[in-house]
Write a structure and sequence with these properties.
- The chain is of the alpha/beta class and 346 residues long.
- The protein has helices at 28-33, 70-79, 100-109, 114-118, 131-144, 154-160, 168-184, 199-204, 211-214, 299-310, 319-326, 330-345; strands at residues 42-46, 52-55, 59-64, 90-94, 123-126, 148-152, 188-194, 219-230, 234-244, 261-269, 275-280.
- The longest helix is centred in the middle third of the chain and has 17 residues, at 168-184.
- The protein is globular.
Length: 346
């Protein structure tokens, strides 16, 4: 396309533009005159080294297989704000039909204060009946301003809107109507999601459209059971970083893995059903299993494999050594060797 004749294109292109309303745009000059804001850092889900997992005022995802500890992890972060002497508001949107009784029972076991749970100025629980109910709840949050909003789960939220988990457009619509407004209301939004059945897609993250990963404003954590979560016995799970938009968590994790280990989530059980949740910070060089298959990480099989390695004389020296002596595949050998080494550090 030819350019208009007679215009001096050596001049600044905005020299004769007088009709732009710059109030529509962010004032970068004012920002640069002052001190630039620090990069966001995670605030909730505090590890035993003082660093946290989840970002404030952002959409965070927690995904993994059923009964892997996802809901326990999200409620552990929420319980930080509901303990005696703590402050902050918590919203739980329960689309998985866990039930109010089960949710409150879990929070009490995690150390939440009974008075805080009974106070509607501190804690709200809801099971939306339909999309209108869900959007009304989100509208309320603009004034109520939760510090943490747990959404359990994405797999049930999308069908509530008649949406497909494989459609980027459908997900974007639900994200803009539910998740994003909660974050704009000031909440650390913790969305619980599930893995797909396909082995290849499981490697990359939660099931469904890739738009989910693009929408993560905070962190997306993969949760994989290490020791099965059993009533009366507790359990543990590996937490790995699938995405960390700001790098504030990744900065405090071992490097070198595609999905760095963010921590080991453990539930310790005491008399009377009292639980002590601990998020152990990873040690230098520590990593999580790399087998993302559906059968990978079976706690019972893994425990048996660790016991087998513990009985070897001489002790196993490498993944290749385990493969040769046990006739195991590479993934199984690596996972068992890693767990065996972790057990010897404890």
């Amino acid at each position: 396309m030819s350019l208009p004749v007679g215009k001096n294109y050596d001049e600044a292109p905005w020299a004769d533009e007088t009709d732009i309303d710059y109030n529509r745009y962010f004032d970068i000059a004012a920002l640069l005159k002052g001190e630039l804001p620090p990069s966001p850092v995670p605030k909730y889900g505090i590890r035993d080294d003082g660093h946290a997992l989840f970002y404030d005022e952002q959409v965070n995802f927690v995904f993994g297989d059923p009964e892997g500890g996802k809901t326990w992890l999200a409620l552990t972060a929420a319980s930080e704000l509901l303990r005696l002497g703590a402050t902050g508001r918590v919203l739980v949107i329960d689309l998985d039909h866990n039930g109010a009784a089960a949710t409150v029972t879990r929070l009490l076991a995690l150390g939440a204060d009974r008075d805080a749970l009974a106070d509607p100025e501190r804690f709200l629980y809801v099971e939306p009946e339909d999309r209108l109910h869900a959007t009304e709840v989100v509208a309320d949050m603009a004034a109520w301003k939760p510090a943490i909003a747990v959404v359990d789960s994405m797999g049930e939220l999308l069908p509530l809107f008649g949406s497909s988990s494989n459609s980027a457009d459908d997900f974007t619509t639900v994200h803009s109507r539910i998740l994003k407004p909660l974050a704009k209301a000031g909440a650390c939004v913790i969305v619980i999601d599930h893995l797909s059945k396909g082995s290849d897609s499981r490697t990359f993250g939660a099931g469904g459209t890739a738009a989910k990963k693009r929408a993560v404003g905070g962190v997306s954590l993969r949760v994989r059971a290490k020791d099965a979560f059993t009533p009366g016995k507790g359990g543990s799970a590996y937490l790995t970083i699938n995405k960390d938009r700001h790098g504030g968590l990744r900065e405090h994790c071992p490097s070198g893995d595609r999905e760095p280990l963010a921590g080991l989530f453990e539930l310790r059980v005491f008399d009377g059903g009292v639980l002590e949740p601990v998020i152990h910070a990873p040690k230098d060089g520590q990593s999580a299993p790399t087998d993302f298959g559906i059968s990978g990480g079976d706690p019972q099989r893994l425990a048996e494999d660790v016991a087998t390695l513990d009985a070897l004389d001489p002790p196993p020296s490498s993944q290749r050594d385990v493969c040769a002596r046990m006739s195991w595949g590479g993934n199984r050998a690596a996972e068992a060797l890693r767990a065996w080494r972790d057990s010897r550090r404890e």
